[in-house]
Amino acid sequence: MTGDTARFSRRKAMQITIAASCCGTAAQAQARRIDQITDPMATAATGMFRFTPDLVMAEPHSTLNFLNSRGEHTVHSVPQLWPAGVPEVAISNQPEAVVTLPTDGLYAFRCKRHGQYGMVMLVVAGDPGDLSRVPDQIARMRARDLEKQAFRALVERLASAREG
Ligand SMILES: [Cu+2]
Predict the structure, then answer these.
(1) Does CATH number 2.60.40.420 belong to domain 3-163?
(2) What pTM did the predictor assign?
(3) What is the rounded distance in angstroms from the CA atom of residue 51 to the CA atom of residue 151?
(4) pLDDT one-digit tens code per residue, 54-113
(5) Which terminus of the chain, N or C, has less C-beta within 10 A?
């Protein structure tokens, strides 16, 4: 990554932080912490790199605290599975970064380096919208099969959590 790109990412994250702090203490109190893990004891690449947790139910206007976007881990929004009009997220080289969820919807995140090994996550803010459209949106992602498969598995978990 060039210095310019890194500065740009930081500036964008700063704007997101400011947006989050405008909405008062209630939303901040709901901040969810999401860690980024490299687990050398994992038996397969698919478990070695992961977001924990990787499926988060949240409220609109609440915030997420992404921890450990360091080394090779990043947090990037996935445009095919992202609420319309919400700014993209691009976090790297930050021990902690705050992301706000300005609207209802389904928010997909990937690690730029390890998405190909299934390091992806889904956040639902309030109403996720029409889940029947999601398989098509996943199919359109510019991603390897393993990454798409990881998103499909998350959507299945989401669907069964909503039924249960
Ligand atoms: Cu990663």
Answers:
(1) yes
(2) 0.81
(3) 13
(4) 999 999 999 999 999 988 999 999 999 999 999 999 999 999 999 999 999 999 999 999
(5) C
